[in-house]
Amino acid sequence: MPKAWQDNVTTSWFKAAFLNIFYNHINPPGLKIQHLICIPYNQEKKLPVFYENHPMKKYFKADFVCFDSIIVELKSKKILINADHQQTLNNVRATNFKLGLLINFGTPSLTFNRILN
């Protein structure tokens, strides 16, 4: 991912990225949606877990991983609680990623939080 995107990612970029993931996930093969940006992602990607920079024999399965560098956790709740934020932070730290996104679809409009390691 370009350095500029890591430092300052905008709300419109997030919305476009997750619309892209959503449409790619639910649309049947061969159906093309026009005017969406291409975001590289893996769904339910198995990631190694580290403790003090030593790999463990455990793995974490992220909802999505974008650009091979952003863990994306999806929720559908009316209200996100501190435990939701803490869970995402723990997942980001345990996998040695630098950025996580906590996306909530349970409110009238999409909300998200950037989680930095």
Strand order of the largest sheet: 1-2-3-4-5
Detail the poorly predicted runs: 1-10, 30-35
Ends apart, CA distance between termini: 17 Å
> How confident overall, as mean pLDDT?
78
- Number of helices, counting only DSSP H or I runs of 4 residues or more: 3
Helix content: 25-40%
Estimated structural class: alpha+beta
Description:
It is built from 3 helices and 5 strands. By secondary structure, it is an alpha+beta fold. It has a 5-stranded mixed β-sheet with strand order 1-2-3-4-5, with helices on one face.
List the keywords.
single chain; 117 residues; 29% helix
Topology (SSEs and partners):
Elements: H1 3-7, H2 11-26, E1 41-51, E2 54-66, E3 70-75, H3 82-94, E4 99-104, E5 111-116
Parallel strand pairs: 3-4
Antiparallel strand pairs: 1-2, 2-3, 4-5
Short note summarizing the structure:
With 117 residues, the chain is an alpha+beta fold. It has one domain.
